[in-house]
């Protein structure tokens, strides 16, 4: 049996420090050289992304921070947090650019983002905003979500 103090001392002597875990997007190994090449090309071209609008959608849910709970010593009941099986959740879409943020669009709970839903988002939240901010000179940047790369969506953007 090794005490916490001994373990802490060994870690310190070996140069280890304790930090909170940080999270970031993972890039698959096969995509790393491609991503690096793209980034280098953009740097060499001095691309400032001035006419680009980066958009995405995400789900936001109402819940508490479960890492810590602060309560008075001995107050056992407050240490137990109730967990909802189905917390309140909404889907939102938005974008950012050098010239500001797009309006946020919220969807009802359970809305599935398919090609027609996505096209409706572009019509109601992006097109007019983009014309006001950029004229006809904006470049829409989106991820590879199924609704973004669907054939009907591609046809919509070609019109």
UniProtKB/TrEMBL annotation:
Domain of life where this protein originates: Eukaryota
One GO MF term attached to the UniProt entry: nucleic acid binding
InterPro entries reported in the protein's UniProt record: RNaseH_sf, Transposase_5
Protein name per UniProt: Tc1-like transposase DDE domain-containing protein
